[in-house]
Design a protein that fits this description.
By secondary structure, this protein is α/β, with parallel strands linked by helices. Helix content is 31%, strand content 20%. The chain has two domains: 166 residues, 3-Layer(aba) Sandwich (Rossmann fold); 204 residues, 2-Layer Sandwich (Dihydrodipicolinate Reductase, domain 2), CATH 3.30.360. It has 13 helices and 17 strands. The two termini are 23 Å apart.
Length: 448
């Protein structure tokens, strides 16, 4: 599209009063919207970003009980949107128009919801642009690139009344819901600590080098809200995660989001009082990976509660007997919980109860997907229709959990620990607060 983002948003705003079935004007609640579309009406959805994560949605999109049409497949890389279209052909309903520019999708009033599975720097901007255009959004983790974007997402959601589900799908695990509920009832006494962890054996990554923009890639749109840089091979592909802070949020944003959210859910904490981090690049010291690959972070909360993060991107040793999970300690026992289920132990370490998931949610496999994602997506659809009373991971909850990720990354980047205001979440340290937001490409600044 030749129009600028500013022109696009002005046009959308001007037409917002006329939105009907395809989107709702600001101020509508999910419940009132359900009365417009009907609890059983078909939803028109669009896929925004067709990289490794998009396949995780296929089962939910194919499930006839979800009653959806795939209206658009959007990606800035031609071969990725074509691959997705080929994989879904004959398996889903809907016209599946293939587009390069997501703004074309936002301009279509018939589209009800967006699945935002773009790189991290597009997550929050793509979501608030969708809300401004009258769309509901399933937003992948991390929901924001920096703390200010999390604040903005909550503010946009309140203004436009959209259904915004964050893709931390373990919130939809029956086993996790069950054991967290028991923890809140006191099954292990007073909870005081959680250790969240992740171990993977990621290998060496190439050193970025100057290269022509790959055929079929819209490098300008890939960068979107991020300041412009020269193309380097192979930034557009998965390794953007590790090639600096312009696009990614490192492994903590990529994976710690899930387990830290479970830990915070179990301990019923909000913002920490104090954050301290030890992190460094420990493996393949001469490769292209620019961030830490190993991190130990500690978050101290009011009430003498502690959450620790043990993240090892390139050391596959299962320190705690699993590649990922959360251990929750209480005065009368301990719980281990991950995507496979949970184990409940008494204070002496005796196994009291265990529950193993019958599902197949992926652990550390690229892209992931499985039954938890299917349930999480169905919950998103059902809340849009008014059939479910609440989201399993509303953005106001997801944004708080995401803050631990940002605190950890900021502490690493400024090289020091800091105190946090437990009421506002703001950091007291001036150097750290310089990273509260980011620089945007001119014309892409958020306008609430």
């Amino acid at each position: 599209m030749s129009s600028t983002r500013r022109d696009f948003l002005r046009n959308v705003t001007a037409g917002a009063a006329g939105l009907t079935i395809g989107g709702m004007a600001s101020g509508f609640t999910a419940k009132s919207y359900s009365r417009i579309i009907g609890a059983n009406d078909r939803l028109n959805v669009a896929l925004m970003g067709c990289g490794r994560r998009v396949g995780a949605y296929y089962a939910a999109l194919m499930n006839k009980s979800n009653n959806v049409d795939v209206a658009y497949i959007c990606d800035v890389m031609k071969k990725q949107r074509e691959k997705t279209a080929k994989e879904l052909a004959g398996k889903v309903t809907g016209k599946m128009a293939l587009v390069n520019d997501i703004r074309e999708v936002f301009a279509d009033q018939k589209v009800d919801a967006i699945f935002n599975a773009t790189p991290d720097h597009w997550h929050a901007p793509g979501t608030w642009m969708a809300m401004q255009a009258g769309k509901h959004v399933y937003i992948e983790k991390p929901c924001s690139h920096n703390p200010h974007e999390g604040e903005l997402l909550v503010a946009f959601q309140k203004k436009y009344g959209k259904v915004i589900q964050m893709g931390n799908q373990q919130r939809s695990s029956g086993e996790s819901i069950e054991i967290i509920g028991e923890i809140h009832k006191g099954v292990i006494g007073d909870v005081y600590k959680a250790v969240a962890f992740y171990s993977n054996n990621r290998g060496e990554v190439p050193v970025p080098r100057k290269a022509p923009v790959p055929e079929g890639l819209d490098w300008e749109l890939f960068q979107g809200p991020a300041p412009r840089v020269e193309y380097m091979d192979d930034i557009w592909n998965y390794n953007w995660h590790w090639y600096g802070w312009n696009w990614g949020t490192a492994e903590t944003g990529n994976n710690a989001t899930h387990e830290l959210d479970i830990a915070r859910w179990a301990l019923q904490t909000v913002y920490p009082e104090y954050v301290t981090v030890e992190a460094a690049k420990r493996h393949f010291l001469n490769d292209g990976w620019e961030m830490y690959d190993t991190m130990d972070a500690t978050f101290r909360f009011p009430g003498n509660k502690i959450i620790k993060w043990d993240g090892k991107s390139r050391s596959g040793y299962a320190t705690y007997g699993s590649d990922r999970g959360t251990i929750i300690y209480g005065t009368n026992g301990t719980v281990f919980v991950n995507r496979e289920g949970y184990k409940l132990y008494d204070r002496m370490g005796k196994l009291i109860k265990s529950s193993k998931s019958a599902g197949n949610e992926a652990g550390t496999a690229l892209g992931g997907g499985g039954d938890m994602t299917d349930t999480h997506v169905a919950n998103f659809f059902n809340v849009i229709r008014g059939k479910d009373g609440k989201l399993n991971s509303p953005i106001e909850e997801g944004a708080i959990s995401q803050m631990m990720v940002h605190y950890a990354n900021i502490a690493y980047r400024v090289g020091k620990s800091f105190e946090v205001d437990t009421e506002t979440g703001k950091i007291y340290d001036r150097d750290a607060m310089k990273l509260w937001s980011r620089e945007y490409q001119p014309g892409w600044e958020p306008k609430l």
